[in-house]
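Hi there,

I know you've been waiting on this one. I reran it after we fixed the sequence typo, so this is the corrected version. Both the input and the resulting structure follow.
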Amino acid sequence: MATQVSDSQQYKSATSHLIRKGSIITIITLVSRFLGYGREAIQAYLFGATLVVDAFVVAYNFPETIQTLFFTGATSAFLVPVCTKFLGDNEEYSNIYSTFLNLGIILTTLVSLLFFAFSGPLAYAMAPGFDPEKRQLTQLLFIVMIPLIVFETMLSIMKAHLNAKEHFVAPELSGILWNIFTIASALVLSRWWGIYSFAFGVTAGTLLQVIMQYPYLKSHNIRYRFVMDLAHPAVAEAKHLFVGALLATSIVPINTLIGRFFASYLPHGEISHLSYASRIFILPYSLFAVPVYTVMFSKISRLYHEKDWKAVSAHLDSSIVLLAATLIPSTILLCSMGDLCIRVIYQRGAFSINDTMMTNRALFGYTIGLIFYALSFIFVRVFNAMHDVKTPARVGLITIALNALLAVTLMTQLGGLGISLATSMASFFNFTTLYLIYRNRTGYALSRKAIRDIIKALLGGILLLISIFTLRRFITPIAGSTVYPALFGGAFLTALIYGILFKNYYLSLFKRR
């Protein structure tokens, strides 16, 4: 009995830690996403779902994908576990930080110059289905945004070193600055520069994000030095982990790139519909999943070095429960009220009712896999925290191939919906495979408390679905009418149902705080 009480307390402690740290990220992310949707709404108002937006999306996604693939995504996966070994020595920590930052700048600058020299062929490779005019616009926009590769890599290295010290605020706050600058750039310059105003805002805004990190790094005694100690043990360990981390974290950006590649063969606007849908789909993921796995990753990386396996399981339990309690209702809301959300955010100016319908189809395909998309990241991070990057890498390669096969098969009949469905199905495969491997390797099993909470979340989801279905029978917005009563009704039902189901749970956490 004593062990059960200890396990329960550890589970509550882990959950409280995740909520306390994660809630700060959630609040900042909420503001940033609100601004992000303002940016998207301005883009939709100015340009709709047209040729120039298709070109911008492709041109932006390529450098974004490259830096996420080879630098940003892999950086957190191997740097945080490596950095946690040296937290007690500020001088050593600063040397490691400086070494990785200088190395990242050199490598990404060389890559950027290479991309600039071959921007023409790359524009063709990005979207071979584009006509010459559309391809030329894509190439020019791509050139403007090539510096993203350098700036975002610098930002990711700074973020990893701050996160290892369990500081999460500065990197998240910088997203607010980026959105504000991009919006201002579009509003001020679009009259003269057109779609190029967005490209300029994206690039310059990312540079401002990097500059913003310096005061926070200094406050945590992380000092930049003009050194690059390639013989340091941390560098050797990073080399060992890099390739596996690269492959494991490349699943999502490669799958996105695959979707854009195949969508270039679909009618004009399909890439834009997928892009707009993914922006909405990513909101609950950013609000609830990213804070959870960001805080969990730093904590489990420390616990791994301390060999506290019971605490590792407790943090994994609480992470899964928090995702279930937030992403299950999010899935139901987006699947049942996605069209209303799209009308509020995008349907104005050049964005038509037909664009809303097509974007909603793509959104449905993405959303049904939301929980599996998030759980995949949780288990990738758990493997990474334990310095195992090969397992998620191998599973990731299979997932990428599966996504490509499903996308090309389903798009022939379902268009953009087929591409988004392929992403969800691949996410389910990725999560299931990683979970089974981890369970077989470690003997991990969800605690009874965690299982009960997950069941409550599922039952709440069923009740919410029935309630929203009933609500929409009585409140059905038509063209020209307001959608807010239905949206507010859905939000109220969600808060009511999940507030009742998890009342004692959240009250106990507030008392602990």
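Quick highlight: The mean pLDDT is 81.

Best,
R. S.
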